Amino acid sequence: MNIYFIFPLIFMLHELEEIAFMPGWVAKVKANKNNWLTEMIPEISAKNFTLMVLEEYILLLIITLLCWWTKNLDFYFAVILAYNLHILFHIGQAIIFKGYIPGLFLGIVSLGLVSWLIWLTVDYVSWDKIFVFLPPAIIIIVVNLFSIHKWIHL
């Protein structure tokens, strides 16, 4: 099996941890009104959060299939690096909140696995192209996240 099809599996492991624990964690954090950061976290039902994850996964599968079909490993690496930045963001959140953040444990595991995948295939990519593709990949992901958050809270 190649990197195109391993990454979506690793991604979903992290997302399943978030699905399992995010709604309860948000409710618990929102109940503790001592932290100004809690105001920035939107309330979300388990159903809506799961729908958001499903939409993200479908988008990832579409990107995966397009990159696989066109043999565009450079753009795919940019997407994977954007995912790794997302995991580093979770680690930062855990430090700020001084505790567990849903997705943290499997995010750290996936960060290691994805880094290993990158190491295995690093000879097949152009880092110059990856760094050109990285900003658009991040923009696609961020715009998608804001869009689905807005859609869910309509």
UniProtKB/TrEMBL annotation:
Record-linked Pfam families: HXXEE (PF13787)
Keyword Transmembrane listed: yes
Domain of life: Bacteria
Transmembrane segments: 6-27, 48-69, 75-92, 99-118, 130-148
Stored InterPro entries: HXXEE
Protein keywords: Membrane, Transmembrane, Transmembrane helix
Protein name per UniProt: Cell wall teichoic acid glycosylation protein GtcA
Species annotation: Oenococcus oeni (Leuconostoc oenos)
Classification lineage: Bacteria, Bacillati, Bacillota, Bacilli, Lactobacillales
